[in-house]
Amino acid sequence: MKSNSLLWTFALSFSLLFSSAQSEVLDADGDGIVGPHEVLELVRLWKQEATTGVTGNSWSLTGNSGTTPGTNFLGTKDEESLEVRVNGDRALWIVPDATSPILVGGYSGNTVTSTSSGGTIAGGGEKGAENSLDGLFGFLGGGWNNSVSGRYSVIGGGKGNSIEADFGVIGGGGQLSDDRPDLANRVTDDFGTVGGGSNNQAGDDAGTTDDASHATVSGGSSNEASAAGATVSGGIQNLARGISSAVSGGTSNLASGRSSVVCGGTQNLATAEYSIVAGGRYNVASAIRGAVMGGSSNSASGENAFVGGGGSNIASGDHSMVMGGVRNLADGRQGAVVGGQDNIASGFNSIVAGGVANEAGDEYSFAAGHRAKSLHRGSFVWADSAFSDFASTDDNQFLVRASGGVGLGTNNPVSQLHVAESVSGGAGIGNHVAAIENTSTGASPDVLALKVHVETPDDTNNFITFMNSTGNIGAVEGNGSGGVTFKTTGGDFAEYLPLRETDDVTAQPGDLVGLHGGSVSLETDGARRALVVSTAPALLGNDPKQEDGGKHIPIAFIGQVEIRVRGPVHAGDAIVPSGQNDGTGIAMSPVRATMPIAGYAIEESSQDSVKVIRAIVGFPHDPPALDRKDPKDERIVSLERQVESMREEISAMKKQMMEMTRSRRESLILYRQ
């Protein structure tokens, strides 16, 4: 008993020389009791040199060999925690758990709870900024003052970050300085993810963790994905608050509609379901499926409305569209403005193609150019650059104001309307450069009206001008008396008459032919009338069918014609058949003519051969007064002049006598008074 007392007294005195941590080492057999044999062993080994080789159940400082996994190990065999220390401080704490051990590394103040089965704190932390873990199978890689309080959640590192829900992930990042814990990253709802950055939040932090699950913020600063499935890819101060909404980046953007998207830019809003703002700034897509592709201060506030870009454009009608430009408005259902400035498409299915200050104000209307106003249903208005409104006045109008001309088939119009095309073929409607057709089957359909704003049009007012490649060849113009004149190089009015069926030879222009019944022939013997085949008719009537095959020829009825004549001709001579039955005539004095007269010569020729002279036709009785060289005619004219002179003298004498009679009566009246 005495020896035991001495040993315990020694042990007690010796133990006072060591710290509590060192005293724990004396319990060699791990039974919680420091026995005398353990004290004696300590005394024996105290301050002795370590052996160079350690054998048996010891671990060498330089490593062991010949170990067997599962048999040889470092650790404990009871349910107590195990610590690994460095410089006297705990560097690794292994906490036994019935489900899975808990590993706590880093600062000795890092903490785990008993409900953190399988959890791990890999490192990090310091005094006052400990890392903490409270959740099954959570993982905290390191960092400073990070906290995981959800199951199966992970924080890779960073500063001041926290996960308060299950299956959350924060990659890193966090508060920028020690005194700004409000700038750390947070995951508040299940399956949320924050990749990094600062002051980002995945979840709505509404108290429950399942109402805004699967939210993601990839990075950036001060971003928030606070609805189920919402995503912010990066940027600054972006908010994705609609279910399955997304903000790709940019600054101060908001996607609050279900499945809405803001791709980037600044201060853009996608507030309705399935709406999108692709970029730009201050743009708003506020109606279901509305879209703004970019630009500035644009708005798609109609269902399925679209704004392609530009500035201050509004698509407020359902299914409306503004492609771009500045200050354009499409507020009609399915209305569209392609571009330009200050344009309005307010009618159903209306369109403004571009330009400035145009308006398509009724359904199915169209406007383009400058200050074109299509204000009526189905109207089309195109206006040039003039600084005045050009507006429709009724439904279904097609209006064009083009001071430089309208060209169809030409880019150099020489008039207000210039149609040019290369067309050839027969006289069918499809073989003309232009066709005007009235399809009415009513009682009095009209086709074309020509109007000038002159009360009495004269020959300076052309209603129609006919031209060839070098100049004018005819016209319909005013006559100065309230009517019109048809002006042409043609000299006669003609009609088609049939050729005699028995004739083998066809008459040519300028030929003299005979009329036999209702047909004409080169044979003039026995003809009732002598006629002339027209060379250049001004008017041509009785047009036969095209399939006639040349069996009709144009016959001059009145006017000037060219006639083939044999022998000399004097002006005023009658042209009668030559008797040759070959289309020629001869000239003679009208008073001597015994055969049918075809016409009267208005020019002379002394040639004996066959030649062409001009004549007038259509005078069945007396010939016109022409300048003839016949002496008898000259004497008659002289006598007529003498008679006219005598008539004038007699008229003057009568007037003189009447004046004398009046004066005498006045004198008698005065005398009697």
Q: Which labels suit this protein?
A:
single chain, 673 residues, Virus Head Decoration Protein, Chain: A, 11% helix, disordered N terminus
What's this, in brief?
It is built from four helices and 54 strands. The chain has 673 residues and is mainly β.
Notes on the structure:
The chain has 673 residues and is mainly beta. The protein contains 4 helices and 54 strands. The strands form 5 sheets. The protein has a 21-stranded mixed beta sheet, with no helix packed on it. The chain has an 18-stranded parallel beta sheet, with no helix packed on it. Strands 50-52-51-53-54 form a 5-stranded mixed β-barrel. The termini are far apart.
Rg from alpha-carbon coordinates = 59 Å
Structural class determined from secondary elements = mainly beta
Instruction: Specify the CATH homologous superfamily of the domain at 492-629.
Output: Head decoration protein D
Largest pleated sheet: 21 strands, mixed
How much helical structure, as a percent, in the residues?
A: 10-25%
- Extended strand count: 54
Average pLDDT figure? 87
Q: How does CATH name the architecture of the domain at 492-629?
A: Beta Barrel
Tally of separate helices: 4
- CATH topology name of the domain at 492-629: Virus Head Decoration Protein, Chain: A
Q: What gap, in angstroms, lies between the N and C termini? A: 207 Å
Q: Class of the domain at 492-629 in CATH? A: Mainly Beta
Portion in beta strands: 25-35%
Shape: elongated
Poorly predicted regions are 1-26, 49-54, 621-629
